[in-house]
Every structure is written in structure tokens, then in C-alpha cells.
Specification:
By secondary structure, the protein is mainly alpha-helical. It is 78% helix and 0% strand. Helix 8 runs antiparallel to helix 13 and helix 12 runs antiparallel to helix 13. The radius of gyration is 18 Å and the shape is globular.
């Protein structure tokens, strides 16, 4: 029974279905906050399959840059199922393309910049280097790209015009994604050191980076309170965000390099799914 449970968890996490669900959850959450309802759209389908594709490619390329670490942990699982992940990437890329064809040109134009950043993040296009291999860059790229796609593009698909509360919502999402990305930089300190990539935890230290994550969540809640004051959020939306931030902060302060990857890829990434569920259910 335990072996079956582990196999199912490995399939969910390392096939990238979990992070793809998290991405869709973040976008659907924006639908709920912006117009009070969620519905399946071509953009949500594209986000799911594009995330599946990009993270699969990222894992395969990551194997090449982390060879000393492929004997155990998540890289051992990824290496064992490498061919499966390549297959998932191909199918997901095809499906993402099909959803892309269903979108209006304005939405496709809005996708160009974040998709280009995402591709440059995972593909070694310049002398074997990716954008994530540049010092301090990867956490900011992740926060900006996720926020652009899951807030700005959702608003664009809904035909909404820009306003101050909309900018505030984007920044709120930036601070949330930034905060929950810090544990992954803590987890990857040894690998990043091997690849000679400097990250915030490597420079500031683990404890200071965790405090920075807590500060980022505090700024997220401050921005959420502003949108509640401007009547963009209902009280239950604000409560959902507060609960989500508190649980995310707890995980950030519990994160260290010795924890199992299920803690990071399962629980920390799961904070995006949880935030969506709280917004949807409260």
C-alpha cells in the first residue's frame, strides 16, 4: 500500500500535473475575484498544458546540469521516468498549441512576452546557459511570469480595462509567488552551488530568506486589504487570502534543505491550489 501511494505521488508531482493544476487554479482564482465566477476557457486550457510542457522540459534539461545528484531524491525519480516525461512534454505541447489556436489575436499577443521568458528560463540557448542560471534572477522571473499569466491575461480575456485595483492585484500575486518560491531556492542551494548560481538564500542565509518570505506575504496581505477597501474583494475573499498567507508562511519557516521533496513539490506548490480552493469555497 505504501509503495502504491509513493508511486501515485511521484506520478502526480514529477509528471508535473500538480504544478499545472496549481497554475490553472491561480488563473481560475483571478476569474472568481475579477468577475465573481469561474469558467473553462481556452486560456485556462493553454495554461494547464503549457505549464505541463515547460516543467517537463525543465526537468529533462535539469538532469543534464545535475548529474552528481541523480542517484537519489527527486532527480532519481525523474531520471527513471525520463522517457515518460518526454512523452508528456510532447503531448502537452501539442495540446497547448491547439488551445492557442482558439484564442483571439489580442490574447496571443499578450502571451508572447511571458512565454518567451518562460522558454528562455528552461532552454540553454546561450552557451549552455538558461535565464535561471543567472545570479538572483530566477525567483523574480517566476514571480513576474506567473503573475502576468494568471492575472493580467485573465483580465485581458475577460475584456476588463486596467485600473489601480488591477495593478494592486498583480503586485499581490507577485509577492505571493515570490514568497512561496523561496523554499525552493533553499532546497536547491546545493545544486545551485554546484552550477555556480547565486540565489538569495545562498547570499542572505536560510533564516534571513525565510524572513524575507514572511515580509513578502505581509505585503501581499496589505495589498489585498487595499483591494478589500476599494470593494474589489468581499470579506470572505480577504479571509481566504489571510488563511492562505498564514499557512504559506508556516511552510516557509519550516523549509530547510533536509526535508523530503514532497514537502516542496507537494505542500509548498499546493499553497496555490489551496488559495484557489479557499477563494472558491469561502
Amino acid at each position: 500500500m505504501r509503495a502504491l501511494l509513493i508511486a501515485l505521488l511521484d506520478l502526480l508531482l514529477y509528471s508535473n500535473f500538480w504544478i499545472a493544476l496549481a497554475a490553472v487554479g491561480m488563473a481560475a482564482q483571478s476569474q472568481l475575484l475579477l468577475c465573481g465566477r469561474g469558467e473553462p476557457t481556452a486560456l485556462l486550457g493553454f495554461i494547464f498544458f503549457a505549464t505541463l510542457f515547460l516543467y517537463a522540459v525543465h526537468r529533462i534539461i535539469g538532469l543534464r546540469k545535475s548529474k552528481p545528484f541523480t542517484e537519489s531524491g527527486r532527480y532519481a525519480v525523474i531520471a527513471r521516468f525520463r522517457n515518460h516525461i518526454v512523452f508528456y512534454a510532447g503531448m502537452a505541447g501539442l495540446c497547448a498549441g491547439l488551445f492557442l489556436l482558439q484564442m483571439p489575436w489580442a490574447l496571443i499577443a499578450g502571451l508572447i512576452a511571458p512565454c518567451l521568458l518562460a522558454l528562455l528560463y528552461v532552454l540553454p540557448v546561450w552557451k549552455g546557459y538558461r535565464l535561471r542560471d543567472l545570479h538572483y534572477v530566477k525567483i523574480f522571473l517566476i514571480a513576474i511570469t506567473w503573475s502576468w499569466i494568471t492575472v493580467f491575461l485573465v483580465a485581458l480575456e475577460l475584456g476588463m480595462t486596467w485600473s489601480v485595483p488591477m495593478y494592486v492585484m498583480v503586485l499581490e500575486r507577485v509577492f505571493f509567488v515570490f514568497a512561496i518560491t523561496i523554499p525552493f531556492d533553499i532546497r536547491d542551494m546545493e545544486i545551485d552551488a554546484f552550477n555556480k548560481v547565486k540565489t538569495l538564500p545562498a547570499v542572505l542565509g536560510v533564516r534571513s530568506s525565510q524572513r524575507l518570505g514572511g515580509l513578502s506575504l505581509g505585503l501581499m496581505l496589505l495589498l489585498a486589504a487595499l483591494n478589500y477597501y476599494w470593494d474589489v474583494y468581499a470579506l470572505n475573499d480577504l479571509v481566504a487570502l489571510v488563511v492562505s498567507a498564514c499557512l504559506s508562511g508556516l511552510l516557509i519557516f519550516l523549509s530547510d534543505r533536509t526535508r523530503h521533496d514532497y514537502f516542496f513539490s507537494g505542500l509548498v506548490d499546493g499553497m496555490m491550489v489551496l488559495q484557489f480552493l479557499l477563494i472558491a469555497l469561502l
